[in-house]
Amino acid sequence: MKAAPEREVDRSVSQTVKAQLALRDQILSGSLRPGERISELQAVETTGASRTPVRMALVRLEEEGLLEAIPSGGFMVKAFSERDISDSIELRGTLEGLAARFAAERGVSARELEPLKECLAAIDELLRQVPISVDAFSSYVTLNARFHALLTELSRSPPLIRQIDRASALPFASPSGFVMAQSALPEAQQILIIGQEHHRVVIDAIENREGARAEAVMREHARLAVRNLRLALRNRTHLDLLPALARISSAATE
Amino acid sequence: MKAAPEREVDRSVSQTVKAQLALRDQILSGSLRPGERISELQAVETTGASRTPVRMALVRLEEEGLLEAIPSGGFMVKAFSERDISDSIELRGTLEGLAARFAAERGVSARELEPLKECLAAIDELLRQVPISVDAFSSYVTLNARFHALLTELSRSPPLIRQIDRASALPFASPSGFVMAQSALPEAQQILIIGQEHHRVVIDAIENREGARAEAVMREHARLAVRNLRLALRNRTHLDLLPALARISSAATE
DNA sequence: TGAATACCTGATGTATACAGTAACTGGGAC
DNA sequence: GTCCCAGTTACTGTATACATCAGGTATTCA
Question: Which of B35, B91, B167, B224 is deepest in the core (most CB within 10 A)?
């Protein structure tokens, strides 16, 4: 029973992971700007790791989709248009739809659905209070992520789970990527309520083995995230919650 | 104007890529067996590259889905069940369906459809001969891959194109992964003809901006590959064309 | 004054040396 | 005979040194 599980990070976590997390933070916080070449030596200084783990982290971040390889060598921060992001969300929705259909078609025991229903109830509880507090929004993000993860697992398809995980790795494409960004807007509550209805329907569809319905509702569910994205971009006041978004050029939409 | 563009591979291609190709070959040819831990030092000997590029290649192959990270460190060859493979194919079909829908909904100019139609005509030409020669099968694989690549491009969605590429990276999930494996079977011709019909329909659907139709036909198209997989596994005589498949345990299907 | 070339600086790609840790084997004790 | 512990071995993760190449700048010539 080892003590200090918090500060042990410095030793137990590998340098590679440390560098990866640090660099991802730098990218998402906007310290590194899109199109900018990432200098390995600079990364070595800011992350504290050596060149080898830094290179490792860069390769992983490229696979993750945050970086782009430069033909002559090295990496640069990838730039995303609004269209890229909405397409990524639609893509995730399509994959989650497939997962829901698999779950419905292949059948799921009541025991497996239990945690999903608990999650559903917890979100219901959150939404009961009006207006919804900021804390509640934060809890919603956690519970929502959990719901989506559980639902994905229901497909019992490792390749699909893997792909959904990668599709959700991009923070703007993840299930609750823009929930916080619009927590102050009046439309926010309605969207959360509608989203919860989708959650309810998909569970019902899976229980009744209605594959097409389960798939369709998950696709529509993702489009809610696209709406959140639009809202967040139109009301740029709260972009400080996701600084990387501030650089998305709306002009690049079409 | 440099000479010897063939044997220049030794210098122009990076050690990392060389190692990656060599290791992938070893995995797919069956030299490295599923579940087996890959020793870096051993890989250094067989590939000729140093440890650094070998490690790089291992990370990339893991992201590609051929390897699995071992918690205590290192990598092992991933094992696939028949179900894993059919799910991967269904997954690719779903993504290609999305691409076709995007193309249909967003509109495609006649000029952009031109290369698709040329490809279609070339395959038609191939299928005219009965019975189809082995050479024709080989040409079919090339043209089919080209058709799928062009279709994917039509979506004009970089994130989607990227994901489809990754989904097709697994050789068993790629569009014509099992065409060769069943080239000697009598059902083969029929399947090729049906596949070509799908190609024809998806282009027609995109031209007429029928998104749902385009999507549906691409999904069905992928299921043809699942059928090919089943055929290939039932007639294990020709598994030598894809040695890695010989290790798929049919028992692990359910 | 402008363009081209040569040199130089800084980067990445590669190789290898070192440290820490996990797994395996051999021996001993119960 | 079996189980457990300790020692050893060999592997991975990390750091750093070296070579090669691309890009930029300065100088020179037209």
Answer: B91
Residue B37 dihedral angles phi and psi, to the nearest 5° = -75, 135
Cβ-defined contact of B157 to A83 (cutoff 8 Å): yes
Q: What is the pLDDT of residues B49-65, one digit of tens each?
A: 899 999 999 999 999 99
**Which residues get their CB within 7 angstroms of nucleic chain C?**
A 11, 37-42, 51-52, 55, 73-74; B 14-16, 49-53, 56, 72-73
Chain D, protein-covered positions (CB within 7 A): 10-17, 21-23
H or E, element range at A223: helix A211-234
Q: How far apart are the first and last CA of chain A?
A: 57
Q: Which nucleotide, over all strands, has the C1' atom closest to the CA of A38?
A: C11
How many angstroms separate the CA of B168 from the C1' of C13? Answer: 29
Which residues lie below 8 Å from residue A208, measured CB to CB, with a gap of 6+?
A: A104
Q: Is B33 on the interface with A (CB under 8 A)?
A: no
What is the rounded distance in angstroms from the CA atom of residue A101 to the CA atom of residue B42? 43
A9-77: CATH topology: Arc Repressor Mutant, subunit A (1.10.10)
pLDDT exceeds cutoff 80 at A2: no
Give A118-136 pLDDT, tens digit per residue.
999 999 999 888 777 778 8
pLDDT at A34: 87
The hierarchical CATH code for the domain A82-253 is 1.20.120.530
Please report which confidence band the pLDDT of residue B242 belongs to, taking 50, 70 and 90 as the band edges. Answer: low
> pLDDT-based confidence at B214, cuts 50/70/90?
very high
